[in-house]
Each structure stands twice: as C-alpha cells, then as structure tokens.
Design a protein that fits this description.
By secondary structure, the protein is an alpha+beta fold. The strands form two sheets. The protein has a four-stranded antiparallel sheet with strand order 2-3-1-6. A hairpin with a 5-residue loop joins strand 4 and strand 5. Bound molecules: uridine-5'-diphosphate and magnesium ion.
Length: 172
Amino acid sequence: MENELHERQPTLVLIKPDGLSKSLTGNILTRLSETKLEIAAAKCVRVSRELAEEHYRDLREKPFFEEIIGYLMGKFHDRKKVLAFVYVGVDAIGKVRDICGATNPEEAASTTIRGAYGRITTKGVYENVIHASSNEQEAEREIKLWFKPDEVIYNIYPVKTVEEKVKHPIWA
Ligand code: UDP
Ligand code: MG
C-alpha cells in the first residue's frame, strides 16, 4: 500500500497569473513533461481571497503575505486566473520542485522554470510563474483545497460519500 502510494505520489502544480499573462503555459507544461509524470487533474480557477489566504496560510505572518495573496488572485496581471494541476508518479514532489528551481528566480538555475521565466518585481515580490507542493503533507492539504475528489482521475486519498441537495448550474 505504501509502495503504491509512493508510486503514485501526488503533487499540486499551479501556473500563476504571471505565467498566464506571459503566455508561458505551453513552455511550462513542456518542461514539466520532461519528468514523465502523469497529469491526474487539470482546471482553470478564478482565485478568491479566501482560497489564496488558505493556500498560503503558513506564510500569513510574513511581511509579503498581502502581496502574494494579490499575486495569486491575479490583481497585478491581466489574466485573473490560475491553471491548477495534480501530477502523479514516483517522487512527483521532488521531481517537480527540481524542475521549478529555487523560490527566488534570481537564485534559480537558468535551466529551471523559475530561472528561465521568473522575475522580482520592483516591490520585491518573487513572480516565479509556478507553484509546486513542497512535501507530502502540503501536497495533500493543497490538493484537497483546490480539487474535489471527482475532479482527480485516481483515488489518491480516501473519500466518503455524502448525500446533499444543492442547486447547481447545468447546461441549459
Ligand atoms: N515569496 C516572495 N518573497 C519571499 C518568499 C516567497 O515573494 O521572500 C513568494 C513567491 O512567489 C513564492 C511564494 O511567496 O513562490 C510562496 O513562498 P514559499 O516560501 O512557499 O516558496 P515556494 O514553495 O513557492 O518555493
Ligand atoms: Mg511553498
């Protein structure tokens, strides 16, 4: 079981609003495909303040917290959305982090995604085009925040079924 989990280790990837504004989706996905990992979920998301604050909850004491919330919400870019993915495979977290490069784009190797495409804004925010989960606990927390179980094609975490009557839109 542990082995199976390891073989299908999931990690969350976000192409942040600067990646979208700079039309880097294709380039970023091509770089990620070098890992030979598999995409198990994908969608386009308009990020609410609530979602951004929950995503970066562990950084809420940092002086740049408000800036990175605005950044993830797309407040500084013309594409006010992110693309969210779950990648799965052997050592997915490490492989994706390696190809992303260091958090600070000036410190990231030029062969990495952040090294190639990131920048530091005049306000000092690292606009580094991509988010990737940093460990298994964070991956689980983040994936459960961004995706519902039926949006992921594999059973990566235990689920339960609940019955609820809610109004939701369907195609007219
Ligand atoms: N960040 C920043 N300045 C810092 C540290 C982080 O602007 O000194 C931003 C950057 O966009 C980073 C995000 O905050 O990707 C989350 O920070 P974290 O330390 O979790 O880095 P990551 O896991 O994304 O490499
Ligand atoms: Mg992080």
